[in-house]
Amino acid sequence: MQSDRIKFQSYKDKVITAQEAALFFKDKMTVGTSGFTKAGDSKAVLPAFAERAKFENIAITLITGASLGQTTDTDLANNNALYKRMPFQSDAALRKKINDGEILYIDQHLSETAEMLENKHLPKIDIAVIEATYIDENGNIIPTTSVGNSPTFAHLADKIIIEINTSIPLGFKGIHDVYISENYPNRQILNVTASNDRIGQDYIAIDSKKVVGIVFTEILDSPAQPTEIDVKTAAIAGHLLGFLENEITAGRLTNSLMPLQAGIGKVANAVMSGFAKSSFENLVMYSEVLQDSTFELIDSGKMNFASASSITVSENCYKKILANFDFYKDKMLLRPQTISNSAEVIRRLGVIAINTAIEFDIYGNVNSTHIAGTKMMNGIGGSGDFARNAYLSIFVTQSSSKEGNAVSHVLPMVSHVDHTEHDVDVLITEQGVADLRGLAPRERAKVIIENCVHPEYKEELSDYFNRSKLRGGHTPHLLEEAFKFHLRFLETGSMKKML
Amino acid sequence: MQSDRIKFQSYKDKVITAQEAALFFKDKMTVGTSGFTKAGDSKAVLPAFAERAKFENIAITLITGASLGQTTDTDLANNNALYKRMPFQSDAALRKKINDGEILYIDQHLSETAEMLENKHLPKIDIAVIEATYIDENGNIIPTTSVGNSPTFAHLADKIIIEINTSIPLGFKGIHDVYISENYPNRQILNVTASNDRIGQDYIAIDSKKVVGIVFTEILDSPAQPTEIDVKTAAIAGHLLGFLENEITAGRLTNSLMPLQAGIGKVANAVMSGFAKSSFENLVMYSEVLQDSTFELIDSGKMNFASASSITVSENCYKKILANFDFYKDKMLLRPQTISNSAEVIRRLGVIAINTAIEFDIYGNVNSTHIAGTKMMNGIGGSGDFARNAYLSIFVTQSSSKEGNAVSHVLPMVSHVDHTEHDVDVLITEQGVADLRGLAPRERAKVIIENCVHPEYKEELSDYFNRSKLRGGHTPHLLEEAFKFHLRFLETGSMKKML
C-alpha cells in the first residue's frame, strides 16, 4: 500500500507518525498548510500539533489556503496553539478567540497571500504541511481535493511534511494544474484564456532535500453541510435567474452566460442549483470552490467544465464523485488560489461573480465580514478577487433575518466595507433585484430601498435617505444616525424602531 | 495648414465650426469626449455646447477619460448642460452641483468605464468628441496629450466629431499605443510585460462614415498648477524614500525599485521629485499621468521610461517637452486608460503604487473621495486600480490640516471607504510610516497611532482604541463614537475636543 503511494525511492525511510512530525514545530514558527474550504487539509499533523500544544506553551502563525475542516481550528484555538492565523477561517471556537483579541487574524483576499509570501512581504515559511494523494517517481506531490497555497508553501518552506491520504484514489492525478509565477522582475503572462486551459504541471514540485517526514492518514475531508433550499433562498435564486434571462433578452448575454463564480453557503448554492432547472446551457465555472451544485449542473448536462481551487461537497456528493470519477475527471480542474482567483484571468474570462453579503447599504457598499462593524464572521475570502474584476459583480443576501425580522441586511451605512460602491453591479434579496449599473448614489438608494429592503424597514430607510438629502452631498448621510440600526441591535437585540 | 492636419481626402469637406458641431448634441444624449486629467480634452466643441446650453433647455450625460481642463466642466455645470457625469471630475462648480444633488455623478475606477461601455452595461455613446493632432491618410486619429477612453468612444459612438489641435506638433505621432480588447468571449491576453511594451497602433482607428464634423482649435491644454514642496510634503517624501531604502536593505527591492505609479497632487509630486535626489536609478513608471516630476526624473537620468494615459504638466514643463521632443519621445508612451490602469498589467509588472488619501482610519481603511462621508471631492480615479493590484500599495497624506490642525486625517473610522483594509500596505504622513504588511487590525491600530497621527490627536485616538478593545471584536470600534471627529468638525469646524 505505502509503496503505491511513495514512488520516490529515497523517501521510503521518511515515514513517521503525526506526533513525530508535530515535533518539528517550534514556538513562533510560521507554518503553511494545505487546505481550502475544508478540502485537502492536514488531518494528522495539525491535530497532533494541537494535541501537543495542550501540554506545552507553544504557538505558531498558521497560514492556510482557506478554512480547515475537522475540528482542527477549534482544537488549535482552544489549546492556545495559534499566535496568528491567516488568510481565512470559518471556525466558531477560533472566531471567538479572534474576536476576544486572543488570536491575531489577518483577513486577506485569497489571491494575495501567496503573492505576499513570494514577495517576502510576510514572514518566511518554516514548515509546510501538504496533503498528498501520492508522491510520484521524482518526489513530487500529487495533491488531493484542493491546491490552495500549497505550491507556494512547498516552494518557500525550509522543511516539508507530506501527509499522504490513502482514502483519495490514485486517479486524482491529472485534475490539478499547478503553476507558480516567476518572481519579479521575471513575472510572465498567466496564459489562461478559457476555464479549462492548463498552464502548469499536474503535481506540486518539491525540493526533496526539504522533506523531513511523511505521515499517512485515511481521514476523509469534512463534508460540506447539505443546504436546504428554503423559501427565501429560492426567491433569491429566482430573482437572479430572472435577471440573467433579462440580460439575454437585452442581447448582453447568450444562454451559455459567462464563466460563473459562486461563493460558499446556502444562498449561493441555492442559486447555482437553480441553474439546473434553467434554460441555460454549455455553462462553465471559473470559481474557487466546486460545490454540490457544480456536480448537479454537470450531471444535468448544463455545465461543461468547472475550474476552482478545491472540491468541497457533501458526503453523498463526494461518494458520487468517487464512484463516477472517470466521468467527472475531464470536466474539472483544481488550481492554486493565485490562479483561480487571479484578477488577470477573472477579467479576461469575464466571470459572473455571485457572492454573499452580510449586509449592504443604500448606496451599494457591501460588508462581507464583520458583525456590527467589529466581530469577524469568517473573512472576505475570494469575494473581492472576483467582485472587483468580474464582468458582472452580484451580491446576494436575505433582506432580513432572526425572529421577527430583528435584523435588516440593508442598512443606512454598512458597519464595515469589504466591497466598495465601485465594485458592486447588482444586489439581490428575496424582495427583488437592484441593478446599480450606470446609477449615481442617489439613484442607487431609490432602487435599493424600493427593490431589496424588507417591508418592515422600508419606511425608516426611506426616511433616513430623505432627511440625509436635505443636508446635501454626493452620498447623503446623517453621520450621527448612520449606525442607528446596528446600535439598536447591540442594545436591544433588534434593529427595529421601538414604538 | 489644414491639409497638413487632414491627410484623408474625403474628410476635407467635413470642417465645420465648433458651434455647428455642438448642434449635433440632442437633449438626453450620451456623449463621450477625450480628456484625461486636463490633457487632450475638447477645447472647442464642449465649450460651444456649454454656450448653447445657456439659451436652451438641453442636458447630456458626459463621459470622459477623467477631469477636463479650461473652464469646461464649470461652464457645463453652471449652464445646466449636464444630466450625468462620469467617471471623474475635479472642478469646483461641478463639484458643488454634484453635492447639491443637481448633477448626477458616477465615481468609477478609471479602468472600468470603457469595460462597462463595451459590455453594454452603460448606455450607448451617441457622439464622441476626440481631440486629434492630425488625421492620417486612412482617416484615423493621431491623439494629442492623452488617450483616455477615446478609442472606446470612437469604437462605440454613432457619430464622431474630431477636434484638430494645431498647437500640438505633428511629431506627436508615435507616442501613443492604442489597443482595444476584443469583446467577450474573444478577450485576449494584454501582452504588456514591460512598461515600454507596445501592443497596439499609434492611432485611434475610426470608421470614417461616422465622422460628422472636424473642428480646428489651437488652444493649449490647461497647465497643471506648479506645486510648492513645503515642510510637510518634504517630510512625507523623506519618509517614503527611507521606507524604500529599507526595502532595498532588506533585499526585497533593488535600487531600480519596481515600476512606479503616483497619483495627482502636491504630495505625490513632491514624493516623485524626491526620487531625483535619491540613489535610485534606472527607474521606470507605469502610471496614469505623466507629471512634471516624471520629466525631472528623466532629465536627471534617473528614469528610463514612463508609460501613462496622459501628459499633465505645468506650462514651463510643457514648453520644455515641446522644445526637446526628440529627446523625450522614445522615453514615454500614452495608452488607453483600460491598459494604463489594467489590473492584469499592474500585477504583472509589480507596480509600486503611491496614492493620496483624504483620510485613513486606525485599521488602515482609506477614504479618497468624500469629505465627512457625504461631499464628493474629485473621485477615486485610478487609485483603486493601482492599490488593489500593486506590488506595494502606499497611501500618503498629511496627518492634520487647516488652521490650528483643526482636521485630523487619521480617524477612528473613515467616513467613506474607497480602499479597504485588504488593499493597503503602507501609510505615510509627515509624522512617519506605518508598515501594515502582515499585521492584524489591532496591531495596525498601534502602529498607525504611534507613527502617523498628529500629536494633538494621538491621545484621543489611543483612548478610542483602548476603550473599543474593552468591547471586543476583531476590529474594535465604538459605533456610537466612530464618527465623533467628523461630527465635531461639522458642528464646530474643528475635529478637536472642546476643553
From TrEMBL, chains A, B:
Pfam families recorded: AcetylCoA_hyd_C (PF13336), AcetylCoA_hydro (PF02550)
Family: Belongs to the acetyl-CoA hydrolase/transferase family.
Gene Ontology molecular function: acetate CoA-transferase activity; acetyl-CoA hydrolase activity
Binding site for CoA: 263-267, 358, 378, 382, 402
InterPro entries per the UniProt record, alphabetical: AcetylCoA_hyd_C (IPR026888), AcetylCoA_hyd_C_sf (IPR038460), ActCoA_hydro (IPR046433), ActCoA_hydro_N (IPR003702), NagB/RpiA_transferase-like (IPR037171), Succinate_CoA_transferase (IPR017821)
Keyword Transferase: yes
Top-rank lineage group of the source organism: Bacteria
Active site: 288
Domain Acetyl-CoA hydrolase/transferase N-terminal: 10-215
Domain Acetyl-CoA hydrolase/transferase C-terminal: 323-464
Protein name per the record: Succinate CoA transferase
BP-aspect Gene Ontology terms: acetate metabolic process; acetyl-CoA metabolic process
Keywords, in A-Z order: Transferase
PANTHER family, sorted: ACETYL-COA HYDROLASE
